[in-house]
Amino acid sequence: MAIDAGLGAIGFLIARILFGGLLAFQGLNHFQNADAMSGYAQSKGVPAARAGVLFSGGMLIFGGLGIVLGVFPAIAAGAIAVFLLVATPMMHDFWAVPEDQQQDEMTSFIKNVELLGASVVLLALSSQPWAYALGGLGL
């Protein structure tokens, strides 16, 4: 069933704007705070930490804007899912940090798993036409 008309389509558009817009904002944050984020990534053992921060920021911007605009929705949602599958256990390894850091890392881990679930839902819905999507213009 396509999400292409009525209140459901408007609700889906609002959800896309909220979800994708905040992901794109997080991606922009990767660029604006690249030094601090690179240091954190390096402390987690990420090789080429700065490049990883910038690449993942690009994935978040691309995926977030793709979801908002409905452009290449499978690729956009897939980019977000891949980012979260890789980054979540690597960056938020609550099981491997000192006890005083476990709660913060667990909270971030759980948040990312929730976002992963949402991105998988969007990936599943990407086979259907999205109302109010630029993808409907042949993109």
Task: Identify the notable features of this structure and list them briefly.
139 residues, mainly alpha
Task: Please tell me about this protein's structure.
With 139 residues, the protein is mainly alpha-helical. It has one domain (6-134). It has five helices and no strands. It has helices at residues 6-32, 34-43, 49-69, 73-91, 99-125. Helix 2 (34-43) crosses helix 3 (49-69) and helix 4 runs antiparallel to helix 5 (99-125). It is elongated. The model has no long low-confidence stretch (mean pLDDT 92).
Summarize the SSE layout with pairings.
Blueprint (H helix, E strand, L loop, with lengths): L5 H27 L1 H10 L5 H21 L3 H19 L7 H27 L14
Helix pairs in contact: 1-3, 2-3, 3-4, 4-5
